[in-house]
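User: I'm curious what two different proteins look like when written out as structure tokens. Can you demonstrate?

Assistant: Sure. I'll show them one after the other, since each token string lines up with its own sequence. Here's the first protein:
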Amino acid sequence: MAPAPSFPFRLRWIEDMHLTSGRDKPQEACGVVGIYAPGQEVSKLTYNGLLALQHRGQESAGITVNDGGLMTTFKEMGLVAQVFNENVLNSLTGDMAIGHVRYSTTGSSVWENAQPIYRHSRKLGVALGHNGNLVNAMRLAEELGAPDRGPGAAPECSNDSDLIAEMIVTSGAATVEEGILSTLPKLEGAFSLVMLDDHSVFGARDPHGLRPLVIGSLDVGGYAIASETAALDTIGATFLREVEPGELVTIDAQGIRSHRYAEATPALCVFEYVYFARPDSILYGKSVQKARYQMGKKLADESPAEADIVIPVPDSGRGAAAGYSQASGLPYVEGFVKNAYVGRTFIQPSQAVRQRGIGAKLNPIVHLIEGKRLVVVDDSIVRGNTTRQIVRLLRHAGAAEVHMRISSPPIKWPCFYGIDTANRDELIGGYQSVEEIRAHIEADSLAYLSEDGMIEATEVAADKLCTACFSSNYPIPVPDEVKVTKNMLERI
């Protein structure tokens, strides 16, 4: 075997795992869209699909189109509506497209790491968008060898999406489809992929199906692939089915072809139901909104509180708060006004700015709260600082008591599959008891939903869900070098 090129991938990956420090919500994975619709405005269909998936990534957005063999990509840092305008979309002509909204889990948050990415060799070229995270990326980068690229220096791979595309185009296969099929079995971790060559749109999902990926038929003709069913609804597509765990689908002029490249052992991330997915999406045939409502009902049964009203932390606490209200008999009240135009608190540069940002984003409605005993329902607590600030805002607004109720169990373990909980020392549930957390957030009481209650609310069999961040039961083994810090190695 030829000597491996000097990839900077390993060092960059380890360093960038620490970029997430300080965030107070589990950060979503990315969102992907693929469109095959000859004769249609595929860039605009992709754009609208990405708008529906904006909650899954706010760092960058991009679209790649193929027009008779000409591949064109436009991507930029920012939200979908900031990156694209009518003129840009009109310039992205073609019959096929893929799109991506990004939150970085490997690789820095810079333009060079925005997606879709494009890789080519002497024979093959592929555009790729990735939702997930590989746990064997460092080993794969070291094993890649000298790529068959023709003249020029060996490429740099600054994230695992680059690596996957590089493996495809240097696989020695005769077609992109064959290159994908030879590459997918080598990948370990979470990945839902959309890919594009001159003839086809591809969708692939890891054998555990940790991240969602669905297929729909477009009302205008053609097909769509997307991270969530809500994106299909937005672009006028009828849901057909999920891309199965361990499956590659190819969409081209002949329709949809399925390739089974690995045995399926389903383990969808349960946090999709708790927080990540849009409430109007369907996962495993189950309504996300219904699951959140049921979580709230079970939370009320498990942890009642002597209170006057139930209020949600918007937006993700609403479904569970409604369920808590129904089960407890306490009135449901929208006690906060949320400023939708304020950036997320966990991407601000300092703790002081983050704390000031909470007040700018959420403002209590004093006349509804003053003198009341409150049950405040949220989906999770990561570091606790945001929750403490919310409690303080409510007390300042005159709340008599604040009883926090969380519609998931304590997050105790880091996720290595594409969710931002890289270091256990950042997880307050990993090293403090519930009573210690209650004292930290300054609430009158605190209770979490049990793991059994959470799973029952989804109406999905426990063995088809990944609960690693709550239970430490990792469905895919995590190499020691990926656990990053000595602190993790001692505790995992």
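Here's a second, unrelated protein for contrast:
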Amino acid sequence: MKKSIAALIALFILAAAILPGCSKLKETPYSAIFNNVFYKTSNDAEAALAAAYDPLASMYLGPSTIMASDFSADQAYPRIVVGRNTMTSFSYDANYTLQKTNARLYESPEQIWTSGYAGIERANLLIENIPAIDMDTVRRNSIVGNGYFLRAFYNWMLSKNFGDIPLKLKSTSGVGNAFTAKSAMADVYKQIYSDLDQAIPLLQSYATGTIRKGEPSREVAMALYAKAALYISDWPTAEAKAVQVINSGVYHLMPNVLDVYDVTKEDAARQENMWAFESESVSLGRHQNLTNLTGPGTFASVVYGPAGSGSMFVYEAFFNSFDPVDKRRLLMDTSAVNTAGVRIPQKTITPITPQGVLIKKYIDPSPVIAGSSGSNIPILRLADIYLIAAEAEARLNGATAAAYNFVLPVRQRAGLANLPAGLNQNDFINAILQERSWELFAEGDRWYDLTRTNTFLTVIPKAVNNVYPVRTPAARNRYFPIPLDEINANPLLKQNPDWQ
């Protein structure tokens, strides 16, 4: 049934896309999508919830969500192949032509748009239809809460990548509501706040122990609230929601930062990995491709796994920016062990990127299916929430004792002392932004820190190496262009001004 609903939606979208080209025929559409044969039982509700989560797999399989951010930023870069380097060189166009030419659309920002609106459509269906189903009340509320949470998440993903976006708050029932114009970012975030306000009382607390794998707890919704507020400089809300999560006491930092990413310890790591893309190595449709991308390439590795394309590396300068005693530095490496047990320097593995440093956050030595990794991708982590609280407090009140106390657990876990005492407000904020860079590297976060602080134009030209000796972002690169396919299909949709 889940597939039949998705097929109906896809069929309608296809019809809507071709209608503008046939407008001269003045045909009157008589069809619409009906859900009166579905959304009757608890099984229907569970199937609909699974369908609402499916777009996450499309976002993280490529994974376009990680590549759009990290290949644009100053931490990681790709091998110059199949169009993914256009984000690093800022040479993509409004049609993402090179990615399409090389069949790599799932690695393109366009995939974020496509998956985001597919997810919103399905979240809307949850919100509209699940409340009427006769089923266990707690579970029904949780599913509806998931719907509000997912709609907020998908809108947040879309807005931070594309700026002003269409707000789609009703499911598509016919041609009459198939098209939506863009809303200002302030209105998008107002809706994100509203959806999270709806989700929080409906979701269960992580303390109850009844949160199903891959679904958000009440505290996760608060964490998304805090991070959304961070992105629009709503410092009071960002701090208040982050403090709610911290003071709830139901999530904790893993004592060893390496264990956060250990594929064999993922159940235990959920105490810090509040919400993640739950990759499954038993299913090619639910795995992620980061393990393959970050593998050393040219040979199989007993550490990284049996597959690796050598396509994603850390800049050597970023690696060198870490304090040598920083335990997070161990999540990178300048060499790899092959299947013969021989350690080989990374610079000799492939001549394409001799300065490349390997990423060890997504290794999976023994996947069930070769080339399919079970290593989860963090989306919201408690360490991030501590740093949000620290930044928000500093933005509001300067480098207070509270701000220092928020960052302290993250630095202690890394094996470092707290930030130097006596920093002024600006220096403390810059230190927190640097801490975020070290803590969250290769997790699809850094580019948005640079764009929300409007520092990408000065930071990125310095992030170069022998593979990318010159990088010159323009002001228009702050947001990605809205895919031309979407503009051609929606007569109400206008391209971002800087891309017109």
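A detail about the second structure: Confidence is low (pLDDT under 50) at residues 1-33.
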